[in-house]
Design a protein that fits this description.
single chain; 251 residues; mainly alpha; GIY-YIG endonuclease; 3 domains; three-stranded antiparallel sheet; two-stranded antiparallel ribbon; 5 strands; elongated
């Protein structure tokens, strides 16, 4: 049961080292509780860089947790999740089953969201189309802010250290992966899973569609000696150009 003093809001947590961000909702009795978010990728970044390098900003406040969730669902879209600067790994509302997933918002619910944004000091930060909150002019502002940050030598040093640590993590992952592929049992399991997946109709359809799309975008190669045209680079390089029979005859 929700108490009258409980606060519900949607927030954005930003990594001040690299500009990456996380959007979520939170309910609390204390705005200064230090909560930055519970996303898996975000939590890993906070553990790595330290909470002091992250900043939380409140986007909008609401009377109920459901109203906050509605805005979270509207803001964290599939497009936003695919942004490499975004720590969110799932669209809004996927963190819990509220019976709202996949549901179209009513005008009353949308009005509650608008009222919540209107009560927030961050109301001007949000565009009318929340799904484009980090594209266009907003993205340009973020880019300009990052450029300004990189003019600070101290920030550049911290960023360089973070990148070096990331590279070390990647190298460790690469070495572990190499060791896995030397294990015959692991290779057998991967190949078996791959073979099984390729038998499924939906996988076959996706594979065929991807191959067709790639074929359609490939340039047409023309042999200068015999005029043969093809989009298949392998056979063309093997039997034409310098290896073309016409070229050999001319030689």
């Amino acid at each position: 049961m929700e108490g009258s003093s409980r606060l519900h809001f949607v927030y954005m947590t930003t990594n001040m080292l690299d500009g990456k961000f996380y959007i979520g909702k939170h309910s609390t009795d204390n705005l200064e509780d230090g909560y930055l978010g519970s996303g898996v990728v975000l939590a890993r970044a906070i553990k790595k860089h330290g909470p002091a390098n992250f900043k939380r900003e409140i986007i909008a406040t609401f009377d109920t947790e459901e109203e906050a969730l509605l805005l979270e669902i509207e803001m964290i879209t599939d497009e936003l999740v695919r942004d490499p600067m975004c720590y969110n790994v799932k669209p809004g509302g996927k963190g819990g089953d509220w019976g709202l997933k996949g549901r179209t918002l009513t005008e009353e619910q949308r009005q509650k969201i608008r009222d919540g944004i209107a009560r927030s000091d961050r109301s001007k930060w949000l565009p009318k189309d929340w799904s484009k909150a980090f594209t266009g002019e907003n993205q340009e502002r973020r880019t300009a802010s990052m450029r300004k940050l990189f003019q600070d030598p101290e920030f550049r040093a911290r960023h360089k250290a973070a990148c070096q640590a990331f590279v070390q993590d990647v190298e460790l992952h690469r070495s572990n992966t190499t060791a896995l592929w030397k294990d015959p049992e692991y290779v057998r399991k991967v190949n078996a899973a791959r073979t099984e997946a390729l038998q499924r109709p939906e996988v076959k359809a996706k594979k065929s569609a991807a191959a067709l799309k790639m074929w359609e975008t490939m340039p047409t190669l023309v042999c200068p000696h015999c005029g043969k045209q093809s989009r298949a680079p392998g056979p063309m390089k093997q039997h034409h150009f310098d290896r073309c029979k016409e070229a050999l005859r001319e030689a």
